[in-house]
Structures are given as C-alpha cells and as structure tokens.
Design goal:
The protein has 949 residues and is an alpha+beta fold. Helix 1 (8-21) crosses helix 2 (23-40) and helix 29 crosses helix 30 (834-841). Residues 97-109 have low confidence and may be disordered.
Length: 949
C-alpha cells in the first residue's frame, strides 16, 4: 500500500463529498481553475515556482538554490529549503486558500495553478513525502467527463517515484503536455531569472540546465546578479517596511534609470510603470497576480508608504546622479503608474535629497537650479544664492528635470540681479568672467543678456555693465598703479578684474597711449596741481601718468606738462620743474629757482624712482627743450622776443623750430649753455637753422665775455681786424661760435647791426684799414631793410684814408672825379651805393659840391687820339662815339680854390693832355673804369710789352 504522509485521502474525500452535496461546487471549482490556467497564470510558471522556492528558503532561514532541468520529457524544478508539509499540500489542493503566512510572497493568491499551463499530471516530491495531481484520475473519481479541477484532488506519489536530486529538499515534476516544447520552455525561463533573483532575496542562485545565475550583496545596499556569461548586473536597493526600490547601477555607481517596467508584487505584474526605479512591494493583487486588487482600501496607504521611501533610494546615489531618478515628464502608462509617479514626485519635492552648493541637502521645492551648464559658476554663486543646487546640477537639462519636483530655475537675468550691489574683490569678479566666457563664446549665454553684468573699477566703484569702461593693457606695475588712482570720469576696469569677456560685452581695450588721450585723464592732470596743493594725494596720479608715458612712444609732452610733481617747496607743474641732476641748474640764473621763479627743482627722491626720459617727456627739464610747430600761425610759442623775430619776415614763417628758455641763462653761463646746445642733435639743429629764432636770438642776446656774439670775430676772420676784436678762448668750437653770430664776414641785417657798424666805423680808438672801410660802407649801402629815419645819424664817419672825420665836413663819394678836389680825409667811399649810403649817413654826395672848370680845352674826337686808339686796340676796347675836351692844363675851382685835375665831367668830358687824364676819361667813357690804371700805363708807353709784361 502506498504511503500517504499528508492525508491526501481525507482531502479527496472531503472535496468529493462537497461536489456531491453541491453539484454547482464542482462547476465553480472547474471554472476557477480554468480561469487561472487560461487567464491569470498564463506564462507565470517559473515565476510562481520560484516564489515557492523562495518561501521554502525563507522558512528554512537559509538562502536557497533553484534548479530547473528537463528529464525524460518532464520539466523538473528543484529547490532547497523547508520541505513540503501537510498545510502546504492543503494549500496546493485549494483554489481559494494559501498556506503562506507573514513575509512569504504568495500571501494574497494561489500560484501553483500555473503548472497547468504545461501539464495535467503535476507531482511535488519532497524529502517529507510527495503528492501528485491527475486530470484522468480526477475525472474517474468525480465520475465526470471533460474539464475537471485537476488541483482539487491530491494523491500520494507512487512508491517507485525517483528520488530527489542530491542537495535539494523539494522538486516539482511536470510531465509536459502534448505540444509543449520543453527546450523552448527552459529557454524562455532564463529571461526571468535575473529579475526573480532581484525580487526574491531568499534565492541565492538559479540553475537552468547547465547555466547558473547567482545573487550576491556588494556592500550594504547593492545587489549583484551574475549571469552564466557576460557582465554582472548591479542594482542599488533600498528596503523599507513597505517596499523595496531598486535601480540598475554601473560598477562606478552611476544609475541606469529604467525607461519602462512593471510593478513587482514581488514578482512581475502587468501593471506598467514609467518610474526610473523598480518597485517591489507586497500589495494586494488579484488572484491572477497580474493586477493590483482594485478597490482594496489598503492600496493607497501602501503606495504612499512606498513613495515615502523613494527619496531614501535617491539619497544613496552620488549627488550628481540623483536627478536621474526624477520621473521623466510624460503620460502615465497605467493607473497605478499615475498614482506612483505623483507620489514619488511629491516626496521628492518635500524631502531633502538634492545636494546644495552650500549647506544641508535641499527639498525639491526649495531648490534653485542655475539654468546654464557651468559647475564653476555654481561654485562662485554658492554663497550668494540660497538654495542653489550643487555642481554639476545645473544647465537646461537639470532645470527641466528638477522642474518636476518644484525647483526654481535661476536664469541670466536672475544672476545679474543677484550680482548687482554685492561687494567682492576684483579677482573674484575676474573668476566670474572667466567662468562666463566659455558660455558666451559658445553662445549658450547671449552677450546681450550680460549687458548689466557688474564691473569693478580701479577707483573702487562697481558699475552695472561694461559698456563705456576701459580695459587697460600694460605692465603689472602700470596696472597696480592704475588700481590705486581715482580719476573721475575715467572708467578704468580694475586690472585684477580685466578679462576678454568684458571687451565682448562692450568694454574698450585701451593701451597706455589710449588712456593718455582720454579727456578725463587730461582734466585730472590739468587740475592736479590745484588738487595737490589743496591736500589731496598727488602721488597716485603722478605715478600712474608717468607709467603710462613710460609705456608709450609719445614724443610730445604737450598737456602733460600740467602734471603735478613734488618739488623742494611743494608741488609744481612738470613743465615748471628741472631735474635735480640737470646741467641747467648751473646754467640758468639763480633767480630762476627762487620761490616765485619760473622753475623749481624736482624732488630728488621722486626723481630717482623714474627714468630721466619719462620725466622729460612730461615736461620736466633736463636739458634745453626744442619747440616745434610745423604749422605755425602766430608768434605764440613762448619764445623770448618772438614777436620781434616774427616781424623780420615779409611772409610769416609757417614752421617754427626753436630752443625755449634761452632768456633764463645766467650772464656768466653762456659758454656752458652753448656747449650744452651743441651737444644735443635737436638743439643743434635748431641753433643752425637758417632764419630760425634760436640763431637770431643768440646772436643778439647771448653774452660771450660780456659781449654779444656779433661784437666778436672769429680768429680766422683777419679781414675784419680793426672793426671787430677776436673772440676770446672760451673752449667753444668755431662751428658753435659761427652759429651764434661770431663774425667771419662783414654783414648787417637790421637797424641794430647798422647802428653797431657805424659806431665802430666812427670810433677814433679803432684803426680801420681803408679797404675794410670801403667794404664796410659797401655793406651798409647794400642794406635795404633799415629805415634811415629810424637811424641815429652818426657824428663821425670813417674816411677813405682810414681816418675818422667829422660828419659835418664829410661827403659821400659817388663819382670818381671829385677825388681830385676833395681830400680823402673828408671822403666816405660810396661807389655804386653812394646814394643809399648818403641817405643813411645824412651826408651830401661829392658830385653835389659846387665846382667849375676854369681852363680852356679843345674838342678832339676819340678817333683822332692815336695813343688812345693803340691802347684800345691792344685791349680790344671799342672807341666810344664823340670825343672830349683836351686841356693842356685842366683846372677846376672848388670851395674857392682852383686846383689842377687830371680829368673832369660837367656834362662834358674834360681831360688834361696827359696819360693819366686821357686814360681816366677814356675808361669812364668806354665803361671800362676798372681798367683805368692799365690804360694809363699803355698811354704812357704804348709798347705791347707794357700790356704783356
């Protein structure tokens, strides 16, 4: 007799009796089982058997193993754990009850009916015994044909039932119905293994044929499912009293959110979900285990509890990955999905889970998310924006994701508003610009959006927006100086904040030369002396301007001469200062440096801090300065006696190149001054410029041994001996002496020159040679720039014989014949310029003196004078027309005295019959006056040898 350890006979008797007593009960059981087989439990064979295996392992208190194999046309599912017991058999044979209690997963339904999908003769063999079910035997026992409730009548297994596989406690054996492909069935089962290992924690491994899957813990919260081949899959889990949440993660801990899943209760249902994580919850479900039990009042409470646990799963992720578990916006995939999505989002908006840039974690509804993708910007704004999410939770994607949980986006406009009015160091602002630059450069942020971006200035102010500000380029020293200077109206970006972003936003790039052109800087320089004298610190402006000058190629100091610089007695304009080591300190008159004098001396300590070139370019004097005006209009260049020099020209000069401040030279310092002028190319060029102011002024006002240069002659100018003294040895070159007007030739240019020369000619203390006298008067006669009316008439004149004559008795020799009747001691040689000279000297012309020919002469044509013809032929002179009156002894009466003369002209030409008389008369008549002495010799001796020898 077959053993019946589970009392199956009594169970069968009870069921059969119920069917007999209530025929409808048989029909109900048949229909119920058919519904489970055809509807509710289709395709759930492996799931349901795995749940039973997990329950057995849980009951035994040891993680179990499940093996699925195909043996002799049977699918066999073996498991470890607690063996089958009487209550279990009763549960298996009941369509409306379950022996599972507590935490076992089948608490709310009947799952064994799933085996009917593949067999009508299932057997359960356990170490405690076994039971079997049979459709054929059920029909026989119930005396019914057709469909019968197979699982209502259990039988003990046969005595010859094959033993359990070694190491296993229970095995479900399913002879496959006709048409069921066992190999294909096992292949389908493998698809469910990884998910079942996750949701059934009491299963440690699953074996299907030769393949094996294992479940292990990695740390406290990560479950790793290792397949037979390929990489293991990890799930981050959070288990609460209400549910377990799980999300796939990589080996690095990065979540791989689910796009679509189903509710697991704890095995898969048909309730589609769109949550990023898997929910495994013991909620009420229909007997089919496919749907939640609609209308069950426990469902809302249990779903709410599950949703409350969701943020805990999120918090287990690194902060950067947490937003990945925010449900993606979209339509729910099911009614359950809608409830859970709403609950999860609500909990994420209320619970702290978002990492804050500063402080504790944030609720979603209290979080503020930067709308641009810049973790660096988040770090900078952390202390300024309360509730700002930590990097890298920023950018459009983060804004879209976190909007679902109520996070507030922080846009560029909000950023500008936050930054406006804050006080930060310039270096902090530069860090901000450095972070913003790639955003603007990539057009993620438009430049126009940053128009109000605050900009720190060098003067300590912060402006709302870069437009109109200046980005200064230059040395570190310049930038440091500019950072300390306060120039109203000059919007200099603080050097420590300078960045190319500001130029993109409207700031202008300015080099040192650009700043020197800035009107605000000019205004500051122009009032700098006044400011310094009123007590303001002038050192910062002075240092900044000098550094700007040092970094430019500016040659013309111009307005920079107004810059206030420290001097021995306070502050003065740069153009009113002389360097402490300048040679001008010894050259200028001492009074120049008096307190009220035109110049002061630059502070020595200050001068040591700056190159001489820089100081001179702002107007501080080291050596003489050259004024240059290429388009001169008026004599307004600050030159001494400039108007007087200007008036010398018939046409005003259009170019002025002249040395300034020559009138400040001390009387005894001129040799040093001239050497300094000659040592510099610029001043030497001005000194040697023909017609230039410098040369003109020095020739009149410089002093060489207490005399002006024009009162001396060069040592080589021996032709001027008598009129001018040789210049003493002053250690000056001839070129310098000549350039300043020391004479090498005889010349006059103006009234002063004419007056000086006449005084020298009339000075009895001087010995002047007759030839020099004649040349001097010729020079005077040739000067047409002097108005005779402006000249003081000399009282004495130098006569032709070199003596000094009283002007009242002197006459200007304008024609040659009066020489015979006027003593040379009274004659002033005039030659061709006699009329002009007579006008200058206010003297009569010699030809105007009364004189009369007193002898008788005979008219003789030139052609009849044989000696004259011979001389003219030798000299190739043409004979003039007409003739002359020849006197045996020519006499002329002048001044009451009759005197013999060699020749004369009173409208008619007279000559004594002598070689001298005839020669001079012929030379005059033939216009060869300069050959008169040769003609005299030829007339005295007409031999050609006289001419040739």
């Amino acid at each position: 007799m077959t053993a019946d350890p589970f009392g199956t006979e009594a169970l069968r008797a009870s069921v059969l009796r119920a069917w007999r007593d209530s025929p409808t009960r048989f029909t109900e059981d048949t229909n119920a089982e058919t519904d489970l087989k055809v509807g509710g439990y289709r395709d759930r064979l492996f799931v349901e058997l795995a749940q039973n295996a997990a329950d057995a392992a849980s009951s035994a208190g040891t993680p179990g193993t499940l093996r699925v194999s195909l043996v002799d046309g049977e699918v066999r599912v073996a498991n470890t754990g607690s063996p089958l017991d009487t209550a279990g058999v009763a549960s298996l044979s009941s369509l409306r009850a379950s022996a599972k209690q507590g935490d076992t997963v089948g608490q709310f339904g009947v799952g064994f009916a799933a085996v009917l999908a593949v067999t009508s003769e299932p057997r359960v063999v356990s170490s405690s015994g076994g039971v079997r079910f049979s459709a054929a035997e059920t029909r026989a026992a119930a005396e019914r044909d057709g469909e019968v409730p197979v699982l209502r009548l259990p039988w003990p297994v046969a005595e010859d039932e094959s033993p359990l596989p070694q190491g296993f406690d229970t095995e479900v054996r399913l002879p496959l119905a006709e048409g069921v492909d066992g190999v294909k069935l096992l292949s389908q089962l493998t698809e469910d293994v990884p998910d079942l290992l996750l949701v059934l924690p009491w299963l440690a491994s699953v074996e299907v044929a030769d393949a094996r899957w294992t479940r292990s813990a990695v740390g406290e919260d990560v479950v790793e499912i290792t397949p037979p081949a390929g990489p293991a899959q990890r799930w981050l889990t959070h288990v609460s009293d209400a549910a377990m949440w799980a999300v796939p993660v990589t080996a690095d801990g990065e979540p791989v959110p689910l796009e679509e899943d189903v509710l697991h209760a704890p095995t898969p249902t048909d309730e589609r979900l769109s949550l990023p994580a898997r929910l495994i919850a013991s909620v009420p479900i229909e007997p089919s285990r496919r749907r939640v039990l609609a209308g069950d009042e426990r469902l809302p409470v249990m779903f709410d509890a599950a949703c409350r646990a969701y943020p805990e799963l999120v918090r287990k992720l690194p902060a950067a990955f947490r937003p990945l578990l925010v449900p993606v916006a979209g339509f729910p995939l099911s009614e359950v999905d809608g409830v859970l999505r709403e609950g999860v989002v609500t909990q994420l908006s209320r619970s702290p889970w978002l990492a804050a840039a500063r402080g504790p974690e944030l609720n979603g509804s209290r979080a503020r998310v930067l709308s641009v993708d810049s973790p660096e910007l988040v770090d900078l704004l952390a202390e300024l924006v309360p509730g700002l999410t930590a990097a890298p939770l920023c950018g459009p994607a983060a804004v879209r994701t976190l909007a679902a949980v109520g996070a507030e986006p922080i846009g560029v406009a909000d950023l500008i508003e936050t930054l406006t009015g804050i006080n930060r160091e310039p270096a902090w602002w530069r860090s901000l610009y450095e972070v913003l630059w790639p955003l603007v450069d990539s057009h993620e942020v438009l430049a126009d959006e940053l128009g109000g971006l605050p900009v720190p200035l060098a003067d300590g102010r912060t402006l709302p927006g870069p437009r109109g500000t200046l980005l200064v380029g230059g040395s570190d020293e310049l930038l440091e100086l500019l950072s300390d200077v306060d120039i109203a109206g000059l919007r200099l970006i603080h050097p420590s904040a300078a960045h190319q972003l500001l130029e993109r936003l409207g700031a202008k790039h300015a080099e040192a030369s650009d700043l020197l052109d800035a009107p605000a800087l000019r205004e500051a320089v122009e009032r700098s002396v006044e400011d310094a004298l009123s007590g303001l610190d002038g050192m910062q402006l002075a240092g900044a301007v000098l550094r700007l000058v040092s970094e430019t190629s500016l040659d013309d100091s111009g307005w920079l001469g107004a810059l206030a610089l420290p001097c021995e007695d306070g502050w003065r304009r740069a153009s009113e200062l002389v360097l402490p080591a300048s040679p001008l300190l010894e050259i200028f008159d001492a009074e120049v440096f008096d307190e009220d004098g035109p110049f002061g001396v630059l502070d020595a300590d200050f001068a040591e801090d700056w190159p001489t070139d820089t100081l001179t370019r702002v107007g501080v004097l080291d050596k003489f300065v050259v004024v240059t005006d290429e388009e001169a209009i008026e004599p307004e260049h600050g030159l001494p006696e400039e108007h007087e020099w200007w008036d010398l020209f018939d046409e005003p000069p259009t170019r002025v190149v002249a040395v300034r401040d020559l009138d400040l030279v001390g009387d005894d310092s001129w040799p040093d001054a001239l050497r300094l002028l000659a040592s510099e190319p610029s001043t030497w060029a001005a000194l040697t410029l023909n017609g230039g102011h410098t040369r003109w002024w020095l020739s009149r006002y410089a002093l060489l041994n207490d005399r002006s240069p024009g009162e001396w002659r060069l040592p080589s100018a021996v032709s001027l001996v008598g009129l001018y003294d040789e210049v003493p040895d002053l250690d000056l070159s001839v070129d310098v002496l000549a350039a300043v007007g020391v004479r090498s030739t005889l010349s006059v240019a103006d009234l002063e020159d004419v007056t000086d020369l006449l005084e020298r000619l009339g000075d009895p203390a001087r010995t002047v040679a007759p030839g020099l006298t004649a040349r001097a008067y010729a020079v005077l006669a040739g000067c047409d720039t002097v108005d005779p009316g402006a000249l003081d008439v000399p009282t004495h004149v130098r006569a032709a014989d070199g003596t000094v004559a009283d002007a009242e008795s002197a006459v200007v020799l304008d024609l040659p014949w009066p020489v015979a009747v006027v003593p040379s001691s009274r004659l002033v040689p005039g030659a061709a310029g006699a009329a002009r000279l007579a006008e200058l000297l206010d003297l009569p012309l010699a030809s105007e003196l009364p004189a009369e020919v007193t002898s008788e002469g005979e008219y003789v044509p030139w052609t009849e004078l044989a000696a004259v013809r011979v001389a003219a032929e030798l000299l190739d002179f043409a004979l003039p027309d007409g003739g002359l009156l020849v006197h045996d002894g020519l006499t002329v009466s002048a001044d009451g005295t009759e005197r013999p003369v060699p020749w004369w002209s009173d409208g008619r030409l007279h000559a004594s019959d002598t070689p001298e008389g005839l020669a001079k008369a012929f030379a005059w008549a033939s216009d060869h006056w300069s050959e008169r002495h040769l003609l005299t010799a030829l007339l005295d001796d007409p031999d050609p040898a006289t001419y040739l020898g």
